Amino acid sequence: MNNTEFDKQHIWHPYTSAVHPLPCYEVVAASGTRLTLSSGESIVDGMSSWWSTIHGYNHPKLNEAAHCQIEKFSHVMFGGLTHEPAVQLCKRLLEIVPDGLNRVFLADSGSVSVEVAIKMAIQYWACQGRPEKSKLVTPRNGYHGDTFAAMSVCDPINGMHSLFKKSLIEHHFAPAPQTRFENTWSPDDIAPMRDIFEKHAEQLAALVLEPIVQGAGGMRIYHPEYLKQCRQLCDEFDVLLICDEIATGFGRTGKLFACEHAQITPDILCLGKALTGGYMTLAATLCTEQVALGVCEGEPGVFMHGPTFMGNPLACAVANASIDLLLSKPWQTDVLNIETQLKNELSELKTNDKVADVRILGAIGVVEMKMHVNVAEIQKVFIKHGAWIRPFSKNIYIMPPFISSPQDISALCEAIKQGVACC
Ligand code: PMP
């Protein structure tokens, strides 16, 4: 049995059926922006392995960082022990994240960093003598991960987790922000969120959102003023703001962190994905000194969370190399060039009968179709045209590595056009 046959019969992939799995392609090499498949094709990666591989694959600097650290030690428990890679990483993070964040909790996946953020917010209020502040509020169309607390703030109607609704803690959902990033701000957009704050602030621990780009819940890109006003509401009504920058962090939207579009600092910030340039599984939850001290006031006096692979030294070493590499480059120009090219090459699809919308920001391009896309069929077209793109529901979207050449971006845009033509 070859690898893809074994895979089909025994391995469960994300968001797929074990009975009717989607076709699966075997990667035998990955370098720069390209994946080589066992069939021999070399295709341009449009997904950055789900927002992660901003420097592309097999980067000498990241390889070197992993090699150097593995010669020293690859893991030690983070309880009672610390190490240089984690200390260096947390120093770097605190230098680059929005001002005011001062403590770092390292985790091992994006979903877990969201769980940690939610637990921090609830514990913070309980330790302030306000245990009734345990509910969350979040805009619809959000996505924050697949674990239970994270699922509870994913969109319950359009979302992927509706089936689990009865097992999830119920929170408050505001309509998704409607004013697009590039349009004139419409003050009405924040009114429903304000309404929820006015009615329920006494029970609210935190507002949870993805700043500027709502990812897996719909690939929507909204106006920075919405984010600014959410910050103001949180201040006015004594509610913590949790920003999930797991997808948007590290330059993807044209700013190092999407919060910078609105010049705000959240009380709690979640990072993951591109933190290690997509090499290792690592995430972080950062918070202000006020939150950290508040969480540890009174009983129990500690924060009860501690993943086994917390602060994994290999992952931290690669994260350090990835951040250094990003900051050593004119990454903003690279992302802006990708944005300009995506606008030039994808905008024509706006007038296509089958296309509902085209949205572009930074190194993110989204073509929303009017109908659901048949993933298996359209992927054959993409691969035939030399591109790795994985759409979901109606959205064909790309977030290529920042090192993508103009030829790579053209190849991706051309493949999207061919895919749209075949829908
Ligand atoms: N939040 C956002 C915004 C995400 O895009 C994702 C991953 N798609 C997550 C949380 C969950 O991260 P992970 O898959 O690493 O658990």
Automatic annotation (TrEMBL):
Substrate binds at residues 50, 143, 273, 306, 390. The record marks 15 as: Participates in the substrate recognition with KAPA and in a stacking interaction with the adenine ring of SAM. It is found in: Cytoplasm. InterPro entries: Aminotrans_3 (IPR005814), Aminotrans_3_PPA_site (IPR049704), BioA (IPR005815), PyrdxlP-dep_Trfase (IPR015424), PyrdxlP-dep_Trfase_major (IPR015421), PyrdxlP-dep_Trfase_small (IPR015422). Keywords: Aminotransferase, Biotin biosynthesis, Cytoplasm, Pyridoxal phosphate, S-adenosyl-L-methionine, Transferase. The modification N6-(pyridoxal phosphate)lysine is found at residue 273. Pathway: Cofactor biosynthesis; biotin biosynthesis; 7,8-diaminononanoate from 8-amino-7-oxononanoate (SAM route): step 1/1. The keyword Oxidoreductase does not apply. Its EC number is 2.6.1.62. It holds the Pfam family Aminotran_3. Its cofactor is pyridoxal 5'-phosphate. CDD domains: OAT_like. The keyword Transcription regulation does not apply. It catalyses: (8S)-8-amino-7-oxononanoate + S-adenosyl-L-methionine = S-adenosyl-4-methylsulfanyl-2-oxobutanoate + (7R,8S)-7,8-diammoniononanoate. Belongs to the class-III pyridoxal-phosphate-dependent aminotransferase family. BioA subfamily. Catalyzes the transfer of the alpha-amino group from S-adenosyl-L-methionine (SAM) to 7-keto-8-aminopelargonic acid (KAPA) to form 7,8-diaminopelargonic acid (DAPA). It is the only aminotransferase known to utilize SAM as an amino donor. PANTHER family: ADENOSYLMETHIONINE-8-AMINO-7-OXONONANOATE AMINOTRANSFERASE. Homodimer. NCBIfam families: bioA, PRK05964.1, PRK07986.1. This is Adenosylmethionine-8-amino-7-oxononanoate aminotransferase. The lineage of its organism: Bacteria, Pseudomonadati, Pseudomonadota, Gammaproteobacteria, Alteromonadales.
